[in-house]
Amino acid sequence: MTLFILKRLAQIIPVTLGVTLVVFLIMQMIPGDPAIILAGEGASTETVEELRENLGLNKPLYVQYGEYVNDLLHGDMGHSLKNKQPVLEEIATRLPITIELAFYSILITIVLGLIAGIISAIRPYSIIDASFMVVALLGISLPSFWLGILLMYVFSVQLQWLPVAGWDSAKHIILPAITLGAGGAAIVARMTRSSMLDVVNQDYIRTAKAKGLKGYVIIAKHALRNALIPVITVVGLQFGSLLGGTVLVESVFAVNGLGRMIVDAIRTRDIPVVQGGVLVASLIFVVINLAVDIMYRLFNKRIDLN
Amino acid sequence: MEKITLTVDHSILTNARKAARKKNRARFMNKMKKNKAAVAGGIIIALYLLIFLIGPLLAPYDPYDVQLEQKLQAPSLEHLMGTDDKGRDIFSRILYGSRLSIGVGFSAVLFGGTIGTILGLIAGYYGKWIDSIISRILDIMLAFPGILLALAIVSALGPSLINVTIAVGFFSIPMFARIVRGSTMEVKKLEYIDAVKTLGANDFTILAKHVFPNILSPIIVQASMRLATAILSAAGLSFLGLGAQPPSPEWGAMLSSGRDFIFTAPYMAMFPGIMISILVLGFNLFGDGLRDALDPRMKN
């Protein structure tokens, strides 16, 4: 197991370097002269030259990349072109909000998804199962940004139970967390159902039934434990779309998290902030994937991931 | 001595191949027909394609025509889906916008699918260091949460619908490449590939004529699944103001402008949202059915 973890850790080094390379190349993809674009329209030639010098755009590409990685290792992600603040500081204030949102969303994804999936699997092809699965299908198909607006319309505009936007109290968290977690819950519900149905047809479940064990004991002790293995992978994969989803949901509910920071930075073409935001979000994703792989291994000892 | 001539009647082979193909097609159609959800999905997609083709001809008004005196009118017989904040007919805009929203999804999947398939074929067929390099690049692409990679690309190229198509297509590349790579590795081990090689066919002919047609099923299944994601992502980027720009009637962009009027004119955001959701639902239903019929191994 330790060997597996070490191997897996070693694997993420090239991936992480690759991620930094892609993020670095974003700057190079800008059509035309990045210095002119970054300096903004109407900037004087001196300003453009100064910027070019500061950003090291005169140097060869590999030198620029080396310096970029070196800066990153020293915690320097550059400065925002708009407010001149260090990008890392900006991220440090925004990231906790996004993590909080992601935490509650994944909680909704797991709890709702598992409950719906298990109930559906216990009573397959019943009305409850059918209605859960229809709702799950809708959950997968509704764009999160539209679901957010719908929830906002019902609970904030019509019923006036919850605030429209912002991030000041517990009440503010409810709608964005449901919006972000719903799609994942739908996927987890479908996965749990099909996985449970696969498991309940196995011989050892029949044996458990023959032994006279009670239904809930069979479900909780025997079926669920094995059915959960593929579900863990799905939950892990959901983290990725969840991180991406924060971009949209934070924009809908005017939450000042990392996602909204990236979108605002794109609008103002504040490339260092975009680079920093995308890099941090992707690195979090890489770490989560690693954790999921390890958990998968712990839960399923039969599978040799080496 | 009697001279022996060996003649092969090619028509027999051709007919046998045709018959096998026909049988496969019939089996596939049978499976699809039995799957009610897939049929429903297929009907939804067909209806949208119809809107895509003839929608603009049916539009009662000019989708760009600003009539400020008619602004924010609730749905009525005159304006089936009401009017927006500039007095434009929402129904007409939805019909025109279908070409943008559906078109972006298809173009992005075509773009990502083509590049992904080529990369997957090369990696799977040649293996060794070529496979290693391509696989590592794919790993890196998969290390980004999809829409974030698209955001990063749009941030560099600038907001526009074409750039959104490129960005969304780009993050579909690894999904196609992985599946094609795996399938190619399986197919290249088959005997008939050895036979074709012995006959002197070059790599391009083998890949294009003999490997590719045999791995079409997983590619089609993947494409149908990716279409839903591509349409959602493209609409999402336009919603954020990074794709279609005003006054374009792209559905995501329409939804975005509708959000500002949720208190006074909620229908402005409702109709584009419904259109996107039903379309994505159609692709999800159809994609599930297609997967079960063509490639049941992908189920889990």
Automatic annotation (TrEMBL), chain A:
Membrane protein topology class: Multi-pass membrane protein
Q: Which UniProt keywords apply?
A: Cell membrane, Ion transport, Membrane, Nickel, Nickel transport, Transmembrane, Transmembrane helix, Transport
List the InterPro entries hit by this protein, alphabetically. Answer: BPD_transp_1_N, MetI-like, MetI-like_sf, Opp2B
Subunit info here reads: The complex is composed of two ATP-binding proteins (NikD and NikE), two transmembrane proteins (NikB and NikC) and a solute-binding protein (NikA).
Which residue intervals define the domain ABC transmembrane type-1 in the entry? 95-296
Q: Answer whether the UniProt record assigns the keyword Transport to this protein.
A: yes
Please state where this protein is localized: Cell membrane
The family classification in the record reads: Belongs to the binding-protein-dependent transport system permease family. OppBC subfamily.
Q: Which domain of life is it from?
A: Bacteria
Transmembrane portions of the chain: 12-30, 101-122, 134-153, 173-192, 227-253, 273-292
Report what the protein is called. Answer: Nickel import system permease protein NikB
Q: Which PROSITE patterns match?
A: ABC_TM1
Query: What main location does UniProt list?
Result: membrane
Automatic annotation (TrEMBL), chain B:
One Pfam family this sequence matches: OppC_N
User: What region holds the ABC transmembrane type-1 domain?
Assistant: 98-287
Segments spanning the bilayer are 37-59, 102-125, 137-155, 161-180, 227-245, 265-287
Q: Which residues form the signal peptide?
A: none
Family as reported in the entry's similarity comment: Belongs to the binding-protein-dependent transport system permease family. OppBC subfamily.
Compartments where found: Cell membrane
InterPro entries linked to this entry: ABC_transport_permease, BP-dependent_transpt_permease, MetI-like, MetI-like_sf, OppC_N
Organism name: Lysinibacillus piscis
Membrane topology per record? Multi-pass membrane protein
| Name under which the protein is recorded | Peptide ABC transporter substrate-binding protein
